[in-house]
Amino acid sequence: MLRNCKFCGNSFEPSIKHPNQNSCNRTCSRKLYYKNNIKIFKKKFKERYEKVKHYPRYKEKVRINQKNWSVQNPERVKEINRKYKENHKNEILAKLRKYELRENACVFCNTKFMPDRNHPMAKCCSQKCRTKLWAKNYPEKFKQINIEKSKRYRERHPEKIKEQSKKSVESGRANKNQKVWRERHLEKAKELRKKQYWKNPEREREKVKEWRQTEAGKLSHRADSKRRQYTRKSKLANDFPLTRKKQDYIPYRDNNTCVYCHVEPNIVTLDHIIAQENKGNNSVNNLVVSCRYCNASKQDKQLEIWLKSDYCKLKGITKESINPIVWNLLVKQKNQVKLVQKE
To answer: What is the pLDDT of residue 77?
Structure first.
C-alpha cells in the first residue's frame, strides 16, 4: 500500500520490517523528529552555546565563517545593512553625536590636537606617537618586526650600509655604541669575541701586540699581571708550598716538553691539572709542564671540558695524544684530596 510522507508529501511504499513507516527516507524521518521535539533541541543548543561562546577557538571559527559568508553573498550583506540602518536610525544618529570633532590630548606625549573626520576617536596626535605607544604595549612583537625590516634593508642596499659604517667609525660614534651594547650584553659579547678570535687567531694576536705598545695597553698589562700574581699567591695552599726543588724536578720528569702539544717551549710554565680556583694545590702530583699557549687557553677549566674546546681541535690535541703521565697524576691527585677530606 502506498502512503504519503508526513514531512515532504511524496508517496512511498513502506518496507516489510517497518509497516508503520511515516517518512519516505532517513533524512525525512530525522527532520520530522526534530520538528516534533523542537523545544527539547532548543534547550540543548542553548546549554551548549553558553559553555562554548567564551572559548577563543569558537570565536575564531565564527569570525572566519562570517567573513566567508559575506564574501560569497555581497548583495545579501548590503540588504541586511540597509534594513539595519532603517530600523535603527535614531540609535546611529545618537552614536554619531558622541563622536563629534573635539580637541583631545595625546595618550603618549599629552599634546592637544584636533582629530580627523575619518578617525574622530583618535588617541594619538601623529603616526610617530602611535608607533611608540604600540612598541610600549607590545615590545616583543615590535623587536621582531624591526629585525625583519633591517634584514630586508641590508639585502636591498648593501652599498649604503658600508658608507654609513665608514662615517660612524670616522666620527667615533660606532665605538660609543659598541661600549653601551657590551655593558648590557656581557655574555653575548664574550661569545662573539671568541668566534672572531678563532676565525683568524694570528691577526688577533698582532692586534694585541700593537695595542700593548701603546701607553694605555702598557698600563693595563701591568695592572693585570700584578692582579694575577696577587691571586696566585693568595690561593696557594700552606700544606703544599711551591719550592725551588719542585720547580727543578717537574721539568726533569716531563723532559722539558709540553705535556699537551709535545713542543719544547722557550719559556717553560707549570700548569695545574686541577686549577687552584677548583681547590687544586701545589703538590708534585698536580703540576705539569706546558707551553705558554696551552696554559693560557686551559685557565681554570677541567681537562675533559678543555679537550672539547676550539683550541684543542685546531692544535689536534685529543685524549689519546696527551702524555699518559697526566692521567696517572690526576688519579693520584683525586685520591689525595679524598684522604684530606676524611681527615
So the answer is: 92
**108 close to 133: Cβ distance less than 8 angstroms:** yes
For each of the domains in the chain, give its residue range(s) and CATH number, in order of start.
Answer: 3-67 (no CATH), 99-156 (no CATH), 158-199 (no CATH), 240-342 (1.10.30)
pTM, two decimals, is: 0.34
Neighbouring residues of 246: CB distance < 8 A, sequence distance ≥ 6: 282, 284, 287
C-alpha cell at 105: 590630548
Q: How many residues does the chain have?
A: 343
HSE on the CB side for 95, CA within 13 Å? 7
Give, in order, the Cα–Cα distances in Å from 226 to each of 50, 198, 219, 221, 231. Answer: 76, 28, 11, 9, 9
Distance CA 265, CA 199 (A): 25
Could you tell me how many helices (H) and strands (E) the chain has, helices first? 17, 6
The pLDDT-based confidence of 230 (bands split at 50, 70, 90) is low
d(CA 5, CA 21): 9
Which of the 8 DSSP states describes residue 318? -
H-type alpha helices, 88-126: 89-98
Question: Quick check: 292 and 277 in contact, CB under 8 A?
Answer: no
Using CB atoms within 10 Å of the CB of residue 37, give its burial: 0 to 12 exposed, 13 to 18 middle, 19+ buried.
exposed
Q: Of 178-187, 223-232, 272-281, which range is least confident?
A: 223-232
Long-range contacts, stretch 194-198, CB < 8 angstroms, 24+ apart: 194/310, 198/310, 198/311, 198/314
Spatial separation of the C-alpha atoms in residues 130 and 165, rounded to whole Å: 30
DSSP letter string, 249-279:
HHHHHTTTS-TTT----SS-EEEESS-GGGT
Spatial contact of 252 and 258, defined as CB atoms under 8 Å apart: no
| Average pLDDT of every residue of the chain | 84
